[in-house]
UniProtKB/TrEMBL annotation:
A GO CC term attached to the entry: apoplast
Tagged with keyword Magnesium: no
Pfam families recorded: Cu-oxidase, Cu-oxidase_2, Cu-oxidase_3
Cofactor: Cu cation
InterPro entries: Cu-oxidase-like_N, Cu-oxidase_2nd, Cu-oxidase_C, Cu-oxidase_fam, Cu_oxidase_CS, Cu_oxidase_Cu_BS, Cupredoxin, CuRO_1_LCC
Catalytic activity: 4 hydroquinone + O2 = 4 benzosemiquinone + 2 H2O
Domain Plastocyanin-like: 39-152, 165-315, 432-562
Protein name: Laccase
EC number assigned by the record: 1.10.3.2
Entry's localization field: Secreted, Extracellular space, Apoplast
Protein keywords: Apoplast, Copper, Glycoprotein, Lignin degradation, Metal-binding, Oxidoreductase, Repeat, Secreted, Signal
Primary location: secreted
Originating organism: Hibiscus trionum (Flower of an hour)
Domain of life: Eukaryota
Amino acid sequence: MGVSLLSSSPAFLVFFSFSTFCLLADPVLGITRHYKFDVKLHNVTRLCHTKSIVSVNGQFPGPRIVARDGDQLLIKVVNHVPNNISIHWHGIRQLRSGWADGPAYVTQCPIQTGQSYIYNFTIVGQRGTLFWHAHISWLRATLYGPIVILPKLGVPYPFAKPYKEVPIIFGEWFNADPEAVISQALQTGGGPNVSDAYTINGLPGPLYNCSAKDTFKLKVKPGKTYLLRLINAALNDELFFSIANHTLTVVDVDAIYVKPFETETLLITPGQTTNVVLKTKPKYPNATFLMTARPYVTGQGTFDNSTVAGILEYESLPSNLDSSVSLKKLPLFKPILPALNDTSFATNFASKLRSLGSAQYPANVPQKVDKHFFFTVGLGTSPCQHNQTCQGPNGTRFAASVNNVSFAMPTTALLQAHFFGQSKGVYTPDFPSSPIIPFNYTGTPPNNTMVSNGTKVVVLPFNTSVELVMQDTSILGAESHPLHLHGFNFFVVGQGFGNFDPNKDPAKFNLIDPVERNTVGVPSGGWVAIRFLADNPGVWFMHCHLEVHTSWGLKMAWIVLDGELPNQKLQPPPADLPKC
């Protein structure tokens, strides 16, 4: 099953009571793996604060899914809580299986209380680390877990096989109910209250009150290599991460191999994953080492300015050291992380990421472009309702938009409306391909900051080659936005600061070995250019992975039409697809 490859920390022990069966055993086709996710409430205590959280199988973080490239997954999700539930398998391509993608009211109606739904999809040509999370309101604050995709049987990694593999998943802990936090913010029009802690594998660590016992410990042996599978499942914060006195080698991002490079610190946005190789010191170092993460912040709003820490602990004590000596007496080294607003680090780190681009793992960058799109992404305002005082800028409500369209979520799933030809009253196919009113995007903001609202989509013929430039705006302050595209990986062919120049900037695009991923940070006060081939029929959500911005409307959808051949058509919906 591949599970033995992975270490088990207490937060991540996967009890196979939710059953993993192998039905098929063809090494080429892969096998079928069954999981059962019981979504229930259970009590968890962090920061000396006990509360009831929504979780899967009573685990926080949730259970790990392990599969190989080519495997089919059947994951039965049963909803035992009062909330509507949907689960997104973040980064899985979902080729022709859009019904299993998971964003509520986009590819499915949510699973209602007492109901269940089987997510059925096959992993095709992917290997690395992804993750699953709730995709409705702010429930992903506690509903998340790792997806470990191993290569096909007998296929090695393009780097030395590690001694051990360890998932490290960053989260955000709220003492309050996150659903109440966003509900209050949407009611008042102001910014939401920030989290109380960041977590590593669900644990806040010793730098927080009352949390020394809730610390993730990575126990290692000298002279070994460890593959750390890093996942940022935080709601609203990009994170810097480092391990004191150790160098990390980046080998994979978003389940795509990259040209390996060494770094002491990395940046990971919500929605991104990064596999790094940690080589431990050749001899027992007589010390312990903190691993820490804290936010990279570019916006004007308040944020959780705290640091999560775990401990890297060397296991084998040398014979001359009495094993009764407390680890507390060993010196503890702390890493030095970049400044909170260190955009130059963010830029330099992003520029080091390149596709492996080997014969076995080529970078198939679209060289010709059928359709060009230019999207502004950023914040704005909406008017306050009649007779209400709002807490947004100048008495308005905070909003966010793409090309000044703040996306209004439908009450029927878009994919159903598209598949059955019932789009009338659900969505319109007139999402603007560029801003309707151009302005100096990163200069002095315009006087009118109001956004428009609508459920608008872009419709693409099958196999359209797309180039999309996403431009940050300075309306309400420039800010980095991690944009996630469902249903596709894309190539990050260029990025820069200021306003994108369509005459000069494309000449600098990397069309040879750009990094391929599913979530990219649009630079604060800058732009990023991506290319992808629309070879996956269905309805595909694209949104900022800062949950607050998604709640405010920084989202849109692409519809990719069926192709001519049978294997280019979306499969019909499953019989148990939830109803609205």
